[in-house]
Amino acid sequence: MNSFRLIYFVFVNCLIAEEIWLVKFSQTTENRLSIIEENFPYIDLLESNSLQSTYVFRLRNEDRTSFARFLSKFNGIYRRLSNDILKQSSKRSKRWVPSENPLDKTYYQHFLSYDQQRDWHNLLENSSSTKKFVRLHTIGQSYENRSLEVVELHTRKFRRRRRRHAVFIDAGMHAREWLSIGVANYIIVQFLREKNTNSKIQEIFRHFDIFVLPMLNPDGYEYSRTKNRLWRKNRSPTSHSDFWNGDEGCIGIDLNRNFPYQWDSLPGSSVYPCTDSYRGPEPLSESEIFHTVNFLRRLTYPHPKFHAYFNLHAFGRFWLLPWTYTLKEKISNYDDIFRRSDHIAKTVMNQTYNVGQASHLLYPCSGTSIDYAATLMPHAMTFELSPVFNRLPMCLEKSSTINENCTLGFMMGPEAIEIDGREIFNAIVEYLYSITK
Ligand SMILES: *[C@@H]1O[C@H](CO)[C@@H](O)[C@H](O)[C@H]1NC(C)=O
Ligand SMILES: *[C@@H]1O[C@H](CO)[C@@H](O)[C@H](O)[C@H]1NC(C)=O
Ligand SMILES: *[C@@H]1O[C@H](CO)[C@@H](O)[C@H](O)[C@H]1NC(C)=O
Ligand SMILES: *[C@@H]1O[C@H](CO)[C@@H](O)[C@H](O)[C@H]1NC(C)=O
Ligand SMILES: [Zn+2]
After folding, report:
1. Which residues surround ligand 5, an ion (CB under 5 A)?
2. Is the C-beta atom of 403 inside 6 A of ligand 4?
3. Which of ligand 1's atoms lies nearest the C-alpha of 119?
4. Are 282 and 146 in contact (CB under 8 A)?
5. Which of 222, 286, 384, 430 is catalytic?
6. pLDDT tens-place string over residues 241-250
7. pLDDT tens digits, one per residue of 139-166
8. 116, 109, 103: which is closest to 189 by C-alpha?
9. Helix extents (H) in 208-286
10. Strand 165-171 vs strand 208-213: parallel, antiparallel, or unpaired?
11. 69 CA distance to ligand 5 middle (Å)
12. Which residues of 158-184 are buried (b: 16+ CB within 10 A; e: fewer)?
């Protein structure tokens, strides 16, 4: 594979174009996806509906011929989707008008740019309506020197109380998962709006200070906004990025594979720099993860000890619990955290969320944030948010009538923020309330 790529690039030194394919297999073929992963490491699985045997892949032009041959061998048919799909969510955004009220809906009805997000953080910290309850912490810089900003929420009245704990919420670890950032912002707004009226939230603030890092991967996010909507990794160079000049996939590390716990146990975590799940040259090699981990270990700022962690991704409607790295082991308090999560998923969430161990519900992968967080605190979990659409059909919904103008989960419009935000906010409030007792 690698030597083939070497020859290819010597002769064709140009930017690689990409295509998006909707693939349907006509009969069950065992382990199809793992065969694809093994033989086509540079093909990115964007969506899957295993019940209907339909999948959406992103592939480079160089892989088209061999992948088409592979599909015909395995009884698969494909259809190229319109590249216009990648423009959908920006096209649908209304114009953003800043408000002087930091709790105004404009701050969660749009996908904010990095600069807009920072302006909003300053407004939260300085506005008379919120400044008593908000503190901003710059915990470090990204590779391209953007600030990693944590918004701290607290009610000062209880600050001196002993045995307080901290809660950490992060989003945007994967650049293209814009919805997670919007939902983190919605959560900040709702905690501040409801802190005096909702008795559960009052109880939560009696026990916890809440820390939210809405944009963990600001470089990747800006790249996804301006250059490549489906960008996933951060933007730091790898050992291959100079050599494979022109192959942008050789830049960046998958930040959710770079955490220093079980980093090298390897499943679902790639050693190849040009893949989308590249784990990096060593654990903590990435600035974004190094600073986040220092913050979690309380080396950055002397806050109370962390007790719970909510990690936001998009999409899939999954409520994922540790462990991620193994199918064999079960975390020691699994039954307790499962019971709490499953109860909440069934009682307060409007849409069906699948609750369970991450490695079983998705796939095993190592070096992830919840596995690392679970070594520091008892409650660590990931939400894979729900794609909500009200305009275009999902590409995978009714596979018999493929509409080339369909849409993908990553392309969710900003109208999904409020719907998902409400649901995840309710779930987090119920979960935190359940552990105050
Ligand atoms: C908000 O306050 C911080 C310090 O508290 C200051 O650095 C920043 O410039 C202020 N921003 C605005 C817009 O006043
Ligand atoms: C980030 O800032 C440091 C210190 O100013 C500088 O040395 C470095 O080149 C900057 N990195 C990037 C990618 O701009
Ligand atoms: C979700 O469920 C709650 C409580 O059952 C209800 O009040 C709310 O309107 C529902 N939201 C949506 C978007 O269906
Ligand atoms: C998809 O959208 C394009 C441009 O809006 C339009 O010309 C085309 O007819 C649409 N195709 C289908 C199958 O709706
Ligand atoms: Zn993700």
Report:
1. 174, 177, 313
2. yes
3. 13
4. no
5. 384
6. 876 666 677 8
7. 999 999 999 999 999 886 656 666 789 9
8. 103
9. 218-226
10. parallel
11. 30
12. eeeeeebbbbbbbbbbbbbbbbbbbbb
